[in-house]
Amino acid sequence: MSTKSLDRIETLARSLEVSNVIRLKDAADLLGVSEMTVRRDVAACENTFTYLGGYITLKSPMAGGLGYILDRERSEHTDLKRMACQIAARHIKPGDTLFLDCGTTIPYLANALPENKDITAVCYSINVAEILCKKRGLRVIMLGGMYHASSASFADSNSVNAILDLNINTAFMSAGGVNTTRGVSCSNPHEVDIKKAVLRTAANKILVVDSTKFNVIKPMLFAKLDQFDMICSDDQCDTALASQIACPLISA
């Protein structure tokens, strides 16, 4: 197998670690090759990938992968999530200490982090940590605490105290809902104290959400929009939203 084929296979596997499933057409676009080439690569790695009905998945899911509740959301709006994270990644600088929130969007940002740039990444969810730990030259700090299967994350009072001792340059925050009047919300109570602690201590706060999260309210409010320095989203955002939001909305 050629070096180019091996590189494509590694890239495809990394993408599937984030999204769990990818359409053949999207895989071809990601790799910059034809759909036939992708199918040949997948067929050559039949012990790694499964191809069925136009979709590619990993044959053997990672520990912490298919077994938890996030799976029902991992394959939704993947293109929009990836785009939002690619925009957010522009704001990463060499030497930064970053915080990466939990959820199904932030893993795309973890995948986009550059290697060997003296970056330290702080996280508290398994699906983010297992991507970060494969990055060369990246320091990873995993917050401890009680495990919560609903977001595959660890969180308790000790996690909050650990955050308060860290000097975070930029925090990349996720959310389940963004409402111009009520604010920013999530579904899980155990995430709230972590998110609030990060917003109190980080020098720069960036909200990373795809356009489907706007005009949505989840049960747990954790921030007002003016607490963020900017919002990074995809190009499907309603342009009228920009005038209603208290911080810059970057979507292109």
TrEMBL record:
Keywords in alphabetical order: DNA-binding, Transcription, Transcription regulation
Coiled-coil ranges from the UniProt annotation: none
Family matches, as InterPro entries: Carb_Metab_HTH_regulators (IPR050313), DeoR-like_C (IPR014036), DeoR_HTH (IPR001034), NagB/RpiA_transferase-like (IPR037171), Tscrpt_reg_HTH_DeoR_CS (IPR018356)
Gene3D superfamilies recorded: 3.40.50.1360
Record SUPFAM superfamilies: NagB/RpiA/CoA transferase-like (SSF100950)
Superkingdom, natural source: Bacteria
Pfam families the UniProt entry points to: DeoRC, HTH_DeoR
Gene Ontology MF annotations: DNA binding; DNA-binding transcription factor activity
Domain HTH deoR-type positions: 5-57
PANTHER family given in the database record: DEOXYRIBOSE OPERON REPRESSOR, HTH-TYPE TRANSCRIPTIONAL REGULATOR SRLR-RELATED
Name listed for the protein in its UniProt record: DeoR family transcriptional regulator
